[in-house]
Amino acid sequence: MFKSIKPPISSTNLSTPLLSSSSTTSISDSDETPTNSNRFQDIPQPLPNTPTTSYKSLAVLSLLAGTVSSLAVSGEFLLSASQGKDIIVWQQPDLHIFAKFGHGGGGAVKALVTLGNKVFTAHQDSRVRVWRISRSSENVFKLVDTLPTTKDYLGKCLLQKNYVQTRRHHKRLWIEHADSISCLAVRNGLIYSGSWDKTLKVWRIGDLKCLESIKAHDDAINGLVASKGVVFSASVDGKIKVWGLANRSHSLMGILEGHRDASFNAVVVSEDGRWVYGGGSYGYLMGWKGNAGFDSWRLVCEVREHKMAVLCMCLRGDILCSGSADKSIGVWKRELGGGVFRIGVIRGHEGPVKCLQVSPNCVGGEFMLYSGSLD
């Protein structure tokens, strides 16, 4: 169990590099524990004497060309993607810049995930790029391929049946996305890509072949997460859909819905796959509990504490963090019944908080939280 996300602070634990002449290395503490005003079912209120938890910024990394769109942790590295097309690699724990890659095409980077020695990046040009990490090369992060691959494209482009209508008088191969790819997820040898074109595509990592294209939602897909053989997709259409893999194809197993006016921007799932939380418009955060077969779900919490839309979330044990367009990060405690109550707020960003990433390294029940913003 994690008591707080406050990392130990001392001069020996972290050496903050001088990243730029204008960068700062600390943000004032936040020590706020507001009272929840909107709860679903009988979620217990925190006791009046519940101790507040403070959080301190260890460093501000500000050498990014454009707003931060995605973060990922891969071994000793923290990767940050930006609207400026570059992916910057920071070496933990001192957070010095180790490398840059990704420039030279593809448009803004919308999402990235890592698996072993590979990095997958989703771009505004509707393509997924695959990079390999190699210590033996001068170019440490080397471009391996682009999805769909040339081989996959040539194998399908000659048959008319492989084309689908994307808009009036316009067709594309079913293996191609027709709009920006907004999110990625990796699980069990597969990579999933969600797009503003409303489709969810499934790729095999072994040969980078597109296996499926699913008309998943009625509006743009903003979030994806894969767990225990199940994939969850969050959309502007106000639904989180549950997809299960059987007989080499994915089928719809359930639809999670919360407040009728809220669209979804992010989704996270617990390690056992039984608890799912979605964040969306108007500051809503909602949670569901599923059964062992992942085919039956019930709403267990619905709170609205942020002043603006929830844009991103991360979950570590019983601690749920939510980043919002109101420039704050909410820190929530998850209870046995799935309900949540807010135990703290982290402030300091000057723009909407777009992405959150938890470091896998844990010290004494505390862990590091990285946040990226449109500031």
From TrEMBL:
SMART domains to which the protein is assigned, alphabetical: WD40
Listed InterPro entries: JINGUBANG-like, WD40/YVTN_repeat-like_dom_sf, WD40_PAC1, WD40_repeat_dom_sf, WD40_rpt
Keywords associated with the record: Repeat, WD repeat
Region (Disordered): 1-48
Name of one Pfam family that matches: WD40
Keyword Protease set for record: no
Gene3D superfamilies xrefs: YVTN repeat-like/Quinoprotein amine dehydrogenase
Domain of life of the native organism: Eukaryota
Amino acid composition bias (Low complexity), ranges on this chain: 7-28
Sequence ranges of the WD repeats: 174-213, 214-253
SUPFAM superfamilies per record: WD40 repeat-like
UniProt key word Kinase: no
Record's protein name: Uncharacterized protein
Species of the source: Escallonia rubra
